[in-house]
Amino acid sequence: MSKYSIHLLVCGGTSCHSAESDVVVCNLRDEIEAKGLSDKVQVITTGCFGFCGKGPIVKVMPDNIIYVQVKPEDAQTIVEEHVVKGRKVERLLYRDPKSNEIIGDSKHMSVFKKQLRIVLRNCGVINPENIDEYIARDGYQALGKALTEMKPEQVIKVVKDSGQRGRGGAGFPTGLKWEIASKNKADQKYVVCNADEGDPGAFMDRSVLEGDPHSVLEAMAICGYSIGASEGLIYVRAEYPMAIHRLKIAINQAHEYGLLGKDILGTGFNFDITLRYGAGAFVCGEETALIHSMEGLRGEPTIKPPFPAQSGYLGKPTNVNNVETFAAIPVIILKGAEWFSKIGTEKSKGTKVFALAGKINNVGLIEVPMGTTLREIIFQIGGGIRNGKKFKAVQTGGPSGGCLTEKHLDMPIDFDNLIAAGSMMGSGGMIVMDEDNCMVSVAKFFLDFTVDESCGKCAPCRIGNKRLHELLARICDGKGIPEDLDRLRNMSQVIKDTSLCGLGQSSPNPVLSTLDNFMNEYEAHVKDKKCPAGECKNLMEYVINAENCVGCTACARVCPVNAISGQRKEVHHIDPAICIKCGACKEKCKFDAIFIR
Amino acid sequence: MSTIKIELRNEDVAKIKEICTSFKNDPQELINVLHSCQEHFGYLPAEVQEVVSGELGVPVAKVYGVVTFYSFFTMTPKGKHPISICLGTACYVRGAEKVLDEFKKELGLNVGQVTKDNKFSLSSLRCVGACGLAPVVLVGEKTYGRVAPDDVRNILKEYE
After folding, report:
1. Count of A–B CB contacts within 8 Å?
2. Quick one: A322 exposed, middle or buried, by C-beta within 10 A (0-12, 13-18, 19+)?
3. I need a surface site. Which of A327, A450, B10, B23 has the fewest CB within 10 A?
4. Which positions 404-433 of A are in contact with B (Cβ < 8 Å)?
5. What CATH number does the domain located at B81-157 have?
6. Using CB atoms, which residue from A53, A203, A358 is nearest to B129?
7. At the topology level of CATH, where does A351-434 sit?
8. What is the pLDDT of residue A1?
């Protein structure tokens, strides 16, 4: 790469940054300067490595050694031991949660072994704030190839033949979308990048924007060339300040290099990109709502047709694609449609980025070929369930998706299989739940989200979801009746069938899929008034086991409502009528005498 | 609209006008204008919306419609140390709700409220994308990761 013989790559993604990776960078630089090694060792802030649960991450190249959970004060040790003496700092190496084996080389870590990184090719590898590093990794070559060697229709053909489907959720074929937009004649057309990642627990778009912003800019320019648009807009969440910051830098640098702006690469093609900010509305991920929001209006969806490709931003033909969809485009153009279409399953080509989170050992961002099974993702890449607990369910597709269970673990994941299983790909969030999670509460949680985020334009979504939420809340409070379960199912179906946009059409999925897969849990709530997972407060009762209680009075002293009575050295008693189920007594008891019934 | 009545000083009005001009008074830039105004004032009281309405030539009802539609915009001022608890799915399944309950109890506030001394305000948000650190709490710009209900009192102590 350059005169430097050692590179220290430090993750500067949001998760690692929040855990003070920026201070780690400063300390490393100070140490290196103090040792007089500034001309040999370079510290680079990169985008997300995808190993967020163990952040901050420091990777030493060319040794390929990854250090995890690095604290600012560890910088000195890393420099003194590894950089100067060439000895690995064992206590900072990754320990496999199952075998307890220490693994330093990232190539041998299960979290990276099964991955195929196309979209994330540069994340954690390059400095996202330096266009030269992107160019050094074949950046902007695809744009050059498209502009100088290909006609617009040839570009569209490659994208079509690659079989890529939109990564935003619905999975519409990208090439077809471009073709429709290119055929609609207009004096002005627009390319829009949907970076309004509203799905809670999903952070793949953010990681791409933070780790490799140029890949999106390059792809948008290629799209503009193929459909005949000279203006691009990125609609990005205001909640992602770092992504916005890096996008601004990237756009400026691309301008300086003549890769955006007028007469790009001397071909006469003009293309410019501006940013638009979201303001916290999940529904704006829906493309018509997004377009209204860009126009300065409330982000309410409208009926399709007309599709944005016919009449979109300011009434002009507009092509809207998601961040992840765009990020793969330059590689598809360079390596060809055939190469891409060989990856994945018959109807879902390429790779998919998933954000793994929840009760899993390796929380982070992964990219795998379509067709990988949930078992491989959760138990091999994800390292299994935290604290040795039992796997219960995984929610894919965010609030629009569904809960999948044990029986779905060996199903190859692609767009169609997920829909057949009652869930959906969505943008790629995967939240893993263990035996302590109550599935009725989880369904209620998602409905709570939907009720909050429904724009209110159509009645089924606005009123229906509220009613669904009320029913679920009633069940969790122990006031449910058996008829409620049928009512939940019927109402869900009506909301799905009659809502205006994708939000309402998919919002009952968490309810339906938990009804399908966890009926026994619903029945326990409604009929036995019990919450098997012990999460629903009103269905729990804290009881003192007379055999274990020694009468130390610790519980009675910590109880905020004085619900516990009993003399010193005598068995205590909790009055269920007063108890607010805060659990303070159970935490305080040293004798395991308090349990939940 | 807002129950809080404020009087805009001349320089406040000038600032709003300056922001609007920087976006060429384009009604399509309404959301960006509101972002800038909120950054400056900390919130968007009715009086600010009225000036924006006049400058951009957008009915004040429309401005209000946009402000209330998007959760990022607020019409109540935040505390000196705004506390936000992430209730994204990853944080939720790892117990964020219990953390929120603890903050409510300690501060005697509900979500969306401010303490009487204007020191703390409490809000919830959906996913800051730091799922590796779940449950996550933000106090101002500072992020706290893997927060347990027991940590709440110590976090608040830092700001005493």
Report:
1. 131
2. buried
3. B10
4. 429, 431, 433
5. 3.40.30.10
6. A203
7. Ubiquitin-like (UB roll) (3.10.20)
8. 46
Q: Distance (Å) from the C-alpha of residue A40 to the closest C-alpha of chain B?
A: 33
For A102, list phi and psi in degrees, rounded to 5: -85, 125
Pick the closest to residue A53 from B138, B151, B146 (CA basis): B146
A485 contacts: CB under 8 Å, gap ≥ 6: A515, A519, A522, A523, A526
pLDDT tens per residue, range A79-118: 999 999 999 999 999 988 778 889 988 888 888 888 999 9
Do A418 and A397 contact (CB within 8 A), yes or no?
yes
> Can you give the pLDDT at residue B129?
75
pLDDT of the residue at A97 = 79
Residues A372-407 have pLDDT tens digits of 999 999 999 999 999 999 999 999 988 889 999 999
Cα B152 to chain centroid distance, Å, stands at 21
Is the CATH number of domain A131-341 3.20.20.150? no
| Rounded Cα distance, A211 and A138, in Å | 16
Written as six digits, the tokens of A115 are 């991955």
- φ, ψ dihedrals at B132, nearest 5°: -65, -20
Query: Closest residue of B to A281, CA-based?
Result: B70
Where does residue A62 rank: exposed (0-12), middle (13-18), buried (19+ CB within 10 A)? Answer: exposed
Q: Which CATH architecture has domain A6-109?
A: 3-Layer(aba) Sandwich (3.40)
Q: Do A395 and B89 touch (CB under 8 A)?
A: yes
The whole-angstrom separation of Cα A177 and Cα A304 is 14
Residue A317 is which amino acid? P
Fold of the CATH domain A541-596: Alpha-Beta Plaits (3.30.70)
CA distance to A562, A571, A578, per residue, from A556 (Å): 7, 11, 13
Q: Is A594 left (phi over 0), alpha (psi -120 to 50) or beta?
A: beta
Cα–Cα distance measured from residue A93 to residue A104, given in angstroms and rounded to the nearest whole number: 6
Of the two residues B142 and A65, the one the predictor is more confident about is: A65
Q: Which chain A residues in 181-240 lie under 8 Å from chain B, judged by CB atoms?
A: 197-203, 206, 238-240
Separation between Cα atoms, residue A344 and residue A372, nearest integer Å: 8
Nearest by CB to residue B133, choosing from A19, A239, A442, is A19
What is the identity of the amino acid at A302? T
Q: What is the pLDDT of residue B2?
A: 45
Encode pLDDT of A361-371 as tens digits.
998 899 999 99
Residue with tokens 């940013």: A275
Q: What is the mean pLDDT of residues A76-81?
A: 95
Domain range list for chain B: 10-69, 81-157
Question: What would the mean pLDDT of A492-510 be, rounded to a whole number?
Answer: 95
> A158: number of CA atoms within 13 Å, CB side?
24
By the CB < 8 Å criterion, does B31 face chain A? yes
pLDDT tens digits, A21-39: 999 999 999 999 999 999 9
For residue A588, give the H/E element and its range. Answer: helix A584-588
Cβ–Cβ gap B126/A355 under 8 Å: no
Nearest-angstrom CA–CA distance, A186 and A184: 7
pLDDT tens, residue by residue, B121-140: 999 888 877 888 889 999 98
**Residues B114 and B121: beta-carbon distance below 8 Å:** yes
Fold of A439-526: de novo design (two linked rop proteins) (1.20.1440)
Q: Examine the pLDDT at A541 and tell me if it is beyond 50.
A: yes
